[in-house]
Amino acid sequence: MEQYIGLDKFDSLISLVTYFKDNATCKGFLVQHRWSDGDYICPYCGQHHCYRRGDGKFRCPNCLKNFSVLVGTVFENTKISLVKWFMAMYLISSHKKGISSHQLSRDIDVTQKSAWYILHKVRTLFSQDSELELKEEVECDEAYIGGQEKYKHASKKTEGTQGRSLKTKTPVFGMAERNGNVVAKKTKNVQGKTLIGLINQFVKEGSRIFTDEYIGYNTLVESEYTHSVVNHGAKQYVDGDAHTNTIEGFWSQLKRSIFGIYHFVSAKYLQRYVDEAVFRYNTCKQQESDRFKTMFLKSIGIVTYEDVLKVA
Fold this sequence. Notes:
Number of helices: 10
Distance between the termini: 40 Å
Strand order of the largest sheet: 6-5-4-7-8
Mean pLDDT: 85
Number of strands: 8
Shape: elongated
Low-confidence stretches: none
C-alpha cells in the first residue's frame, strides 16, 4: 500500500493542487481514507474483505459486483475530474461567507451549471446533527429570509410584509449556545408549539433560555428551563446578562452570505444554505486544513443526484 498521507497536510490551496496532480492520485487518497485498515467493503451488499482487481477496481465475492472507490461517495458517477472536485471542496470550506456558483465555475474552469451542482452536492454534507445538545446558556430567535420589498417597483410590492409576516418570507429558527454551537432550522411557521418543540429537541433541560418578548415563547415551561427576556420592542437589548446578541450575530453572517454572495435563495433550498452557514459558524475556530478534513470525511457518505434535487 502507498504511504499514508494525512488530511492535516493540506493547509493551503497550493499544498492541495501540488499533491493532487491527477485522478489516479485522488483515487488512491480516497482508498486510503475510506478503507484505512485495508478492509475493502462492498457498497452494495456490505460484504467485507473484497479484493482489488488489476485495473484498480474492486470485486465483491458475495454479490459478484465490481465497484470503484467512488461508489457510495459524493463523487459517484461524476464526469468532472477529482482534482477539480478536491479544489472546489477546499475553496468552499475556506471562504468565510461562501462562494457563488459563478465564482467557483471560473476558479476551477467548469460551467456555472456544473459549479451549482457541485455546491449543492457539497451542501448535502452539511446537514446538522439531530442529536446535538445545547446547554447552560442558550439564545433563541427567529429570522425571516426573503421579501426584499424595498427593491421592488411600487406596483409589485406586497402589502403587510413587515415584521413577522410570512407572505413573502421564510422563517428560520435559531438556537445559539453561548461560547458553543448554533442550530438553525427552516420552519413552516413561528407558532409557539413549533418553536418550543425545537427547543425541547435541541436544548438540554435545566438550561437558561434567552429570547426577545415574542409571545411564542410564553409557553416555555419554567420547571424545564429558566427563561430570561429582553424587550426589543421597547428598545431594550441588554438587561444584565440577558441578551440575544450571539444568535443575532449568526443571523447577520447568514444574511450577508445570502445577500452579498448568493443574492437570491429559493425557499426550496434555503435549509441547505442555512446548514452551510451553521457549518461555517461552528467551525470558525478551526484551521482551514481541519475544515477541509471534516468536509472530506463527510464526502465519503452516500449522496445521489436525487439527494441534491429533493426539497429539504
